[in-house]
Amino acid sequence: MAKGYQSYRGRRALGTRIAIVLLVLILLAACAFMFAQQNVSYGDDGRIYLELPHFGRVYLPMAPPPEPETDEKEEDAPPPVQLVVDEPEEPEPEPEPEPEPVDLFGEHHLAELSSLPADGTALTQTLAVQGASGFVYTVRNNAGEIFWASPTGQKKAVKTGEEETERLRALCAAEGTLAVARFNVLHDSYYAFANMKDAAICQAKGYVWYDNHSLHWLEPEKELARRYVVGLAVECAQLGFDELLLEDLCYPTRGNTYKISYANNTMEKKDALALLLTELRTALEPYGTKLSLLLTEAQLSGEDKENSGVDLETLLPLADGVYVQTADPAAARAALAAPSEAEKWPELVLLTPEPGAEENWCIPAA
After folding, report:
1. What is the mean pLDDT of the segment spanning 183-211?
2. 313-343: buried (b, 16+ CB within 10 Å) or exposed (e) per residue?
3. Ramachandran area for residue 201 (φ above 0: left; ψ -120 to 50: alpha; else beta)
4. How far apart are CA 29 and CA 36, in angstroms?
5. What is the rounded CA–CA span in Å between residue 291 and residue 241?
6. Cβ-count burial of 181 within 10 angstroms (0-12 exposed, 13-18 middle, 19+ buried)?
7. Which percentage of the chain shows pLDDT scores above 70?
8. Packing angle between helix 162-172 and helix 120-130, nearest 10 degrees?
9. Distance between CA atoms of 139 and 148, rounded to whole angstroms?
10. Vertex 132, ends 129 and 133: CA angle to 5°?
11. What pLDDT, on the 0 to 100 scale, is given for residue 1?
12. Which residues are paired to 50 by β-bridges?
């Protein structure tokens, strides 16, 4: 052996000892396993124990059984507990007392007819279906067309023959039925065009004025216009109508009104309207026919009365009733009740179409 070199045994001796220890442990484990195989038993309750001589039965510890799998879907989860608190019940509001009925023309529930029934029996059935006690029929519209065989009306304006006129007369005579004629007063394209100078509202150069619907108007200050309207109203009374519902008893407010010339007028608009209404009352008095005004909400509130000429304090004392279709009955009543100094004041009749039947005029208490 060369000088300076020696064999190294430390690492080999340590590895040998570790191998011997591992071998002993393996042998012990094998012996323990063989011993356990011979002495391990299971009880009736499923517990494991060793049957050892001199020691008896020794139970081995067991791991807790796994929890059963659960379906954690939201719909299988138990409902949350809700705390219910009893709230005090609010007292029900007392119903408003029903207003007293208007005793102007008896029970007010009118059905507007777009065409005439065949006879009195058909009329009775129509009114019964709608629960109405009377009817409204348009005898003169805003173009000036006339729907009875008028002998004095402008020839081109008359749209109805004698047969239908007789049927209308029979319907007006039906017992216990209120017959109301819807009569447009000053909105007229036939007589106004044929008599521009003496009956129509005209422009500065004398040509008849037309509104935003290209329709003409009569000038109530002009005597010929008043005479024509009064004559037609008398014919309606002679047909047997109980009431004339006057529409457009006013001056025009829509369209190019700045083109109208009032230079030759000698009275205020409200006075001209009052004069016409007075002549109508005088002419219809022998027939007992009532006169009522069909007003818009704007007219009833006095809005734009300088242009329309509709002055409540002037016109209402001359009328038997006022019809207005409004969404605010309280405001309508207040407007009508404002000028209470008048000796005679008409009743307010509120027009409210029944649901789904806009042609029906249900007239509730005022």
Report:
1. 96
2. ebbbebbbbbbbebeebeebbebbeeeeeee
3. beta
4. 10
5. 11
6. buried
7. 70
8. 60
9. 7
10. 130
11. 45
12. 40, 58
Rounded to whole angstroms, the Cα distance separating 262 from 248 reads: 19
**Any alpha helices (H) in 158-311, and if so which ranges?**
162-172, 191-194, 196-199, 223-239, 269-284, 297-300, 305-308
Q: What gap in Å lies between CA 345 and CA 348, rounded to an integer?
A: 9
Is residue 122 pLDDT above 80, yes or no? yes
Question: Rounded to the nearest 10 degrees, how much is the dihedral formed by the CA atoms of 225, 196, 270, 338?
Answer: 80
Give the DSSP letter string of 9-47. Answer: -HHHHHHHHHHHHHHHHHHHHHHHHHHHHHHEEE-TTS-
Query: What is the C-alpha to C-alpha distance for residues 59 and 37, in angstroms, rounded to an integer?
Result: 15
Q: Map residue 151 onto helix, strand or coil.
A: coil
Main-chain phi, psi angles of 345, to 5 degrees? -140, 135
**Measured between alpha carbons, how far is 89 from 3 in angstroms, rounded to an integer?**
115
Lookup result for tokens 């000796």:
343
Show the tokens assigned to 86. Answer: 């009893």
Query: Checking DSSP bridges between strand 178-184 and strand 243-247, what pairing results, if any?
Result: parallel
Q: Find, among 213, 182, 187, 184, the residue nearest to 200 by Cα.
A: 187
CA dihedral 352, 110, 183, 138 (to 10 degrees): 100
The pTM score is 0.69
Instruction: Provide the Cα torsion 108, 113, 119, 122; round to 10°.
Output: -70
Is residue 177 within 8 A of residue 134, CB to CB? The reply is yes
pLDDT in tens, 148-159: 999 999 999 999
DSSP notation for 63-121: PPPPPPP----GGGSPPPP-----PPPPPPPPPPPPPPPP-SSSS-EEEEESS--SSHH
DSSP-derived letter for residue 217 is B
Quote the percentage of the chain above a pLDDT of 90: 50
